[in-house]
Amino acid sequence: MIKKLLIANRGEIACRIMRTARRMGIATVAVYSDADAKALHTRTADEAVHIGPSPAAESYLVGEKIIAAAKDTGAEAIHPGYGFLSENADFAQSVIDAGLIWVGPKPESIRAMGLKDAAKERMIAAGVPVTPGYLGADQSVERLSKEADAIGYPVLIKAVAGGGGKGMRKVDAAENFAADLESCRREAKASFGNDEVLLEKWITSPRHIEVQVFGDSHGNVVHLFERDCSLQRRHQKVIEEAPAPGMDEATREEICAAAVRAAKAVDYEGAGTIEFIADASEGLRADRIFFMEMNTRLQVEHPVTEEITGVDLVEWQLRVASGEPIPVKQEELSINGWAIEARLYAEDPAKGFLPSIGRLDRFNFRASGGGVRFDTGVEEGAEISPFYDPMIAKAIAHAGTRALAIGKLGHILSETEIYPVKNNAGFVVALLEDETFLVGEMTTGLIAARGDELIPDQDPSTDAFDLAAYLLGKDYTSSLTPDCQGFRLNAPARNAMVLDRGGEPQPVQIPSEWPNALTATRDGFAVMIAERGITHRIALYEARGTGHASVADGAILAPMPGKVIAVDVSEGDAVTAGQRLMVLEAMKMEHALTAPFDGTVTGLEASEGGQVQVDAVLCIVEPSVVEPATSTPSPSGEGQ
User: Fold this and answer.
1) CB-based contact 578:598 (threshold 8 Å)
2) 297, 343, 494, 537: which one is catalytic?
3) Which of 115, 453, 578, 636 is least surrounded by CB atoms within 10 angstroms?
4) d(CA 15, CA 19)
């Protein structure tokens, strides 16, 4: 068994591999860039080696630095995780040539599945169903156009070396083919250094079905059933689940057997995934499920397979890489319940899913009960940098049925606090409630078809403002005198409070009790509230840092009951906008009150050491008078 392992990756997958390695008694070595000097994976490992500047091209993608780090620390093996160098056959060979163990498939297996056209030819020979199309070597526009006509529109142009939706175009009509081909080739060349393409028949009701396979060096290959990854945005997976909705046992048996044949065709070792596209226009049928490609690595969505099978795929990877056989036989594997996973990304759905970076001032995941898993590589206080993939975490729920798993995941995400970095948790919550998804009839085009319907409202609800008032009001009302109490017949006494709504005042009555299920935590003069995946920070309007607490006429009001601990001005003083007037101590915090504009202090009602009540006038600032500009009257007597 491996004694010391270097993980050639970062973030969530590095932390996940380390958890299993630690349980197995294997020492771990992390590698890190400048941006990750204080990252969770860097601090979690037994040792950590700096490998260069923040850009991945100068650190995580430099194989020589990673191999040198393994040698210098005495690591026996390298686990590539996913992404970066995980499917780089040359790097895998370099690791082996350096006398180290490569935790992954043989380099020749990676190469065999690396180009989509060659991989499909192997699959045809192995009896694996493939999508009708063109895989030929003749890449001329004329030949490709002729083949597209023969296949029938719409057709799909795909880069042979592509992935992640790059180098891929749907063409609806012959007159668009040449232009779309040129665009596809240009993108493929830029992304993969290879502009060759293949053609496939466009599937009108596509579902993305994939099968987890595993091989060892003793000739054994097993499958661990299927996953459905149809919920995608711009060809990037958002939600994955296992097993696939609507998959009957006969179809499952056929498609999983085809996946095993595919893995055996390239003498596969380790964890891999055979990806299929299904024409679901008449449900899932074996004769309408076609091979797309093989991912020769551990997948991001592997946790859902682990949850329904009880298998630790990383442990299997480490055992097989050490020369052991797969721990179980095919007939010993079975499906237990349902698992579903959501990827949480640092992106802003309200702004076209643009990446969001910055410090995670709040990152709180509430997991209650069993069947809940949260895989992450960050923690509260961490920085989301612009250099790497924006995934913050993966939330996984496992339950006895699909409906229960979906409900559990939705509950998890609704209560997760992520602030102030924008993220897609609210978007995912809305997606989990989509009727088409709930009945298991989604296709890969569902998110695009829904459009802005899935973009959550960014503003706090009335319930959220009421809860903030209730929580803040516990301290806010503690020193109110009876004449400050609100009154309403047949209702408990309430008090008014002004909260901040996007920079504008939001008057709110303070509830006397709070029965709602929203969750929240106090944050000084503010409350953090998790509401359907959106984290709101609702503050007292007058407590927005060093802002002024004023009304339009220049009256400076007490934002809450408290003690005046400093008065910096006297009546008659000239003041400028933003100048501190006094300091109020309340709720165990100091709050500076500042001038709202240039002017003169014409009334000073507060004195140092005095106790004041909410909305008490502390002083008045009269704005400076600006003389109007003179103008020459027009002949009609009106100004020009």
Assistant:
1) no
2) 297
3) 636
4) 6
